[in-house]
Design a protein that fits this description.
The chain has 157 residues and is α/β, with parallel strands linked by helices. Helices cover 46% and strands 11% of the residues. It contains 6 helices and 6 strands. The longest helix has 23 residues. The mean pLDDT is 82.
């Protein structure tokens, strides 16, 4: 309770700066901040990620596929920043798709009075979407799907 973990990955320094400024403005002072970039937040505590559903109530991130996929697999509700002009096109497409499929909340929804309900609904939507993916593809593992369907041989021949 009242713990916040902030993890930085990727290469976009300008976006990090805007995210850092936003977070410094919005994080209540009674929160303890854990991060892999201790130098960015005064009085924070260094922590590498321990990514599992028991550790996180929700994750705030840009819409990069690695973190999005981990959140979906673990049914960790995801709150995403809108893309900016420095982002790869993938980030913009992921953002639009996640919002359209109701698999993420926008950063503006953090101030919603019914945030807890939205997070619960989001987790339910993620679970239902995973079931649809498994019913369609038989797995949530890309490598397993490719191996099962002999896709590598098709690409190599």
């Amino acid at each position: 309770k009242n713990n916040l973990y902030i993890y930085f990955s990727g290469t976009n320094i300008s976006e990090r700066t805007s995210v850092i400024n936003y977070l410094k403005e919005k994080i209540p002072t009674n929160f303890t901040i854990f991060t892999n970039r201790k130098n960015l937040f005064q009085n924070s505590i260094y922590q590498e990620p321990l990514f599992n559903e028991l550790n996180f109530k929700f994750v705030i991130a840009r819409a990069g596929w690695g973190l999005v996929w981990n959140c979906l697999i673990l049914s960790i509700p995801l709150v995403i920043f809108p893309p900016n002009k420095y982002d790869d096109p993938e980030i913009n497409l992921n953002y639009q798709t996640l919002i359209k499929l109701n698999l993420a909340l926008t950063i503006n929804e953090l101030e919603s009075p019914n945030l807890e309900d939205k997070l619960h609904n989001l987790k339910t939507n993620m679970d239902n979407y995973k079931k649809q993916l498994i019913n369609t593809f038989g797995t949530l593992s890309g490598p397993d799907f490719i191996a099962k369907h002999g896709m590598i041989n098709k690409f190599l021949s």
